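Objective 1b. Sequence-to-structure analysis of Phospholipid/glycerol acyltransferase domain-containing protein.
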Amino acid sequence: MDTSKTMPYSVVSEFEGTVLKSEDLFSYFMLLAFDASGLTRFTVLLSLWPVITLLDVFGHKNAALKLMIFVATVGLRLPEIEAVGKAVLPSFYMDDVSMDTWRVFSSCKKKVVVTSMPRVMVEWFAREHLGADEVIGTDLIVNRFGFVTGLIRETDVDQSVLSRVAKFFADRRPHLGLGRPTKTISTTFLSLCEVQIQGPVPTNDQQLKLQPPKPVIFHDGRLVKRPTPATALLILLWFPVGFVLATIRLVVFILPVWALPYVIEILGCRVIVKGNVPKAGNSGGVLFVCNHRNMIDPVMISYALGRAIPAVRISTLSRFYDIMSPVPTVQFTRNRDVDAQMMKHELSKGDLVVCPEGTIGCQPFVLRFSAMFAELTDRIVPVAMNCRVGFFKHRVRSCVLDLIFLYMNPRPAYEVTFLDQLPIEETCSAGKSPHDVANHVQKIVADTLGFECSNLARKDKYNLLSLETKVVCVT
């Protein structure tokens, strides 16, 4: 089918099963249940999976959809669902995007995404990362107290979508419709389109050049993998064991740094140290500059060095963290002059660890480094940090639980790579600007990890995720 003539104008594409390779809605509602509410709602929704599947098999797709929506959303506030749609789901959507569909979709001038999910779950991703002009989905009903009732306004989802697409293109028919092969054209939005494609999208048109969607740089969910029924069941079965293991690990990590090598492997944690590790006694006053992958990055650096190195932290942490951390912490005041003097004082006493990103990052990107560290010393050792976990990772907004979730992973692996100390000619002492030094360190850390550098910074993350700038994190 020759679709080249339709490309310059408009396309209407189904989201699940077309823009996304998977037709599975269940796992996305599971993500919403877990991150917006917690384990109880997650468990209830999983227990209803057989019922949802049977309804779908016997042709009651609307009923199955409404049941998932009800269990995942009832009692929540709309901003809580919006936060998940903005901060959690996009990363999982991006992993499942069909590049063949994207090749065609992105080449059109006017782009519309259609979904059976509540619009609030898809809209941010579709507009921000896919460049959609309109997102048509179901609408949640909110009561006068501000809580979602779990009900949607639509009685028949397909008919509602059809009428909304017709209204949006009131002046003319959309040129191209992309949808799943399981639906009847006459009862869906595809009937409005001049050209309909059901199933795999043809990609033999040489005029269409593949440009990837806008990447997802910020992510704030706790689950590493998309919770399909099998994965979700495995998580639930592991949870009691993981909680006991996390409790033991919390206690063990109070031990002095020198004692950790004797117990860390027994508890299922692996630490891989690479590069030239600076020796004690020859590195006093060195500033170890690392990217920030999780809350215990400074602990892992101290473990690799075999001695406790103080770490700079930006946000206000509870006394709990001061007690639990085996390394000293230095609190930033957010006054640049005061903080610079504080870091100089600490460096005069010995080594120091700093994470210039100022916030934790989960995606394969290194955020822009704050340049202040480059002004304070020319003894800079970049350190590339990475962490591989099985089930759970941190979130920005609730660090006490984050530490527990992090320690609940069956066999977490930390990778600490010490890079060579910056030569004098690459520091401010040789006339380089602090920003040039910071950008250079950011790049060599990112290159070591195989990550990309981003111009976005900590402030951009908190603005994007609608978080308070006082969010807890160790830096």
